[in-house]
């Protein structure tokens, strides 16, 4: 079972997400709480995935994200919002969020998105993807990003490329004929070498460096 915690200041949102997710046979919502209860509840209930509202009246969602990421056994966190909120996207991703979802995401997609998060994948609603590309990708020198990628082995670069496609650890393992544990080890090494906190950050850094696209002056054969 995938243990999930829903964190939102609105009880109606929490209850709605809980009902949707618990309809899936492999997902258990172990807690549905407000922001002020999130960190203590995560320590007690040990969720694997947390869906966290980015703006709450009792506590800032970005502060909760940082506190959750600092736990000995942190959950994978996807941020929830009702609109794009450009200024928060990059900050959340740099702080270790594994995804960014709008609250009006199709309910039928939610269980599969949670499975993707639990398996080490990343999720971004299409409405916020453009913001990520325009903002996060353009931050920092391209040369610096390229130098960071030089630290990776060929196998790690292949894993990074696959992760940037949105593949989960299981998907990457199947494609590269590796065990899921080996893929997880490679991902951990990639994050450490690139000095980033999440797969999203690693993929964005690779995109900024031009690693995921052919050089502009490359001619067609």
TrEMBL record:
SUPFAM superfamilies: C-terminal effector domain of the bipartite response regulators, CheY-like. The keyword Transmembrane does not apply. Residues 3-118 form the Response regulatory domain. Pfam families: GerE, Response_reg. InterPro entries: CheY-like_superfamily, NreC/VraR/RcsB-like_REC, Sig_transdc_resp-reg_C-effctor, Sig_transdc_resp-reg_receiver, Tscrpt_reg_LuxR_C, WalR-like. This is Response regulator. Residues 145-210 form the HTH luxR-type domain. The modification 4-aspartylphosphate is found at residue 53. Keywords: DNA-binding, Phosphoprotein, Transcription, Transcription regulation.
């Amino acid at each position: 079972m995938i243990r999930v915690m829903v964190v939102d200041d609105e009880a109606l949102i929490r209850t709605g997400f809980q009902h949707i997710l618990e309809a899936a046979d492999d997902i258990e919502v172990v807690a549905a709480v407000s922001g002020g209860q999130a960190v203590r509840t995560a320590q007690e209930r040990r969720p694997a995935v947390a869906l966290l509202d980015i703006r709450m009246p009792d506590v800032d969602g970005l502060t909760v994200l940082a506190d959750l990421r600092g736990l000995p056994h942190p959950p994978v966190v996807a941020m929830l919002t009702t609109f794009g909120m450009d200024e928060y996207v990059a900050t959340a991703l740099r702080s270790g969020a594994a995804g960014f979802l709008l609250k009006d995401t199709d309910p039928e997609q939610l269980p599969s998105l949670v499975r993707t998060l639990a398996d080490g994948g990343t999720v971004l609603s299409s409405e916020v993807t453009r913001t990520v590309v325009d903002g996060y990708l353009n931050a920092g020198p391209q040369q610096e990003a390229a130098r960071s990628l030089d630290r990776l082995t060929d196998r790690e670069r292949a894993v990074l490329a696959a992760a940037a496609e949105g593949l989960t650890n299981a998907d990457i393992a199947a494609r590269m004929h590796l065990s899921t544990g080996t893929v997880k080890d490679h991902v951990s090494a990639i994050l450490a070498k690139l000095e980033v906190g999440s797969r999203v950050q690693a993929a964005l850094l690779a995109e900024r460096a031009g690693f995921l696209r052919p050089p502009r002056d490359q001619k067609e054969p």
